Amino acid sequence: MSDFGRATPRFAVVVPVAPGRDPLVMRSLEQQDEPRSTYEVVVERGLNVSRNRNNCIGRTRAPIFAFTDDDCVVERQWLASARRFFEAHPEFDAVGGPQLNLEGEGALGRAIGRALASRFGTARTRHRFRRGPARWNATQCDLTSANLFVTRAAFDRWGPFDDRLWPNEETALLRRIELGGGRIAYDPSIVVRHRRRDSLRRLAGQCFGYGRGRARQWNIEGRRGLSLEQSIPCAFLLYCATLPLSAAMW
Q1: Is the torsion defined by CA of 208, 144, 180, 226 positive or negative?
Q2: Which region, left, alpha or beta, applies to residue 104 given φ > 0 means left and ψ of -120 to 50 means alpha?
Q3: How many angstroms separate the CA atoms of 123 and 208, rounded?
Q4: Could you give the residue ranges of the DSSP H alpha helices within the chain?
Q5: CB distance 92 to 137 below 8 Å
Q6: What radius of gyration, in Å, describes the C-alpha atoms of the chain?
Q7: What are the tens digits of pLDDT across the range 15-71?
Q8: Inter-residue contact 94 to 47 (CB < 8 Å)
Q9: What DSSP string runs through 200-233?
């Protein structure tokens, strides 16, 4: 439901919410440094996150869509940083930044955050989880839907989200923008914080979901195979999984 019946705001913050979940992100959205009249929050509940986002977009007239997840905390300068970026670089179609650890994470959460931000842990997608230098030729590997801004013009041209995909619906959209000659940037000042999984089992489930989403995306796009760099984390997980069997054989 849209928050506003007033003049069209600059941003529509699109929040898909899982059924029965109390969205953590709402409080931080109320504490933005930007005037409240410059953005609206559009929420859709349902099991299909891609469809939720598409339905939200159908209910707003804002020229820029701001995507985040219901379990994130956005920093106070989140919208202000995006506004400054588009004011300085109106030729860009999309921009985003890192999703960092939530403050106060325990030892496991901090360790998971460091692993996600490492080349060995997530290969080319590590920029999603670390505050690095600005990238003016960013790709689908650099951004996630937890922290992504897309102009209406770009979404009208390359959208909507493919509701056959979740996760990886945003990487498919960014891929279409790339192939269509659009411009994507990574801005380290645009920050959200995301709590890491609280157990290795849940982390493994998250990684499996990402891998399944990537495979489904590649199947839809007609692409096959992993690059050598992307295969390193997979090979390491396979190595860890086979260690008990190897020990038993010896």
Answers
A1: negative
A2: left
A3: 16
A4: 25-29, 49-57, 78-88, 107-116, 119-122, 152-158, 169-179, 200-221, 228-249
A5: no
A6: 18
A7: 999 898 899 999 999 999 999 999 999 999 999 999 999 999 999 999 999 999 999
A8: no
A9: HHHHHHHHHHHHHHHHHHHHHHT-----HHHHHH
